[in-house]
Design a protein that fits this description.
Layout lengths: L1 H12 L4 H23 L9 H29 L4 H14 L1
Helix pairs in contact: 1-2, 2-3, 3-4
Length: 97
């Protein structure tokens, strides 16, 4: 929800390029996911200190971000699919990874 909501706000309200908006929304959503996970599910700092946990999370998430941006570009730029539909589809495909 953070990813899609921020993406829509950036693209439709602030006219930010869809790839930049996709990057910003993905990174912020990853951070929110980390905060929610360590506050409700996992204990933070047990295996790694918090700084290293976040760095590892973003290191792994870079692959997901690349997949998301490639799919978003193919669907929107090459196939002409509406940018929001392309974003939702790219999230689904990235999730499968």
């Amino acid at each position: 929800m953070v990813d899609w909501g921020l993406f829509a706000l950036l693209v439709f309200n602030w006219n930010v390029n869809f790839l930049l908006a996709g990057t910003i929304s993905f990174l912020l959503a990853t951070y929110v996911n980390y905060i929610l996970s360590v506050s409700t599910i996992f204990k933070s700092g047990i295996r790694f200190n918090k700084k290293n946990e976040i760095l590892l999370l973003y290191f792994v998430s870079v692959v997901g971000l690349i997949i998301s941006l490639v799919v978003l570009t193919v669907l929107h730029e090459w196939l002409g699919i509406h940018v929001m539909a392309a974003k939702i589809a790219s999230s689904g495909i990235t999730f499968i990874w």
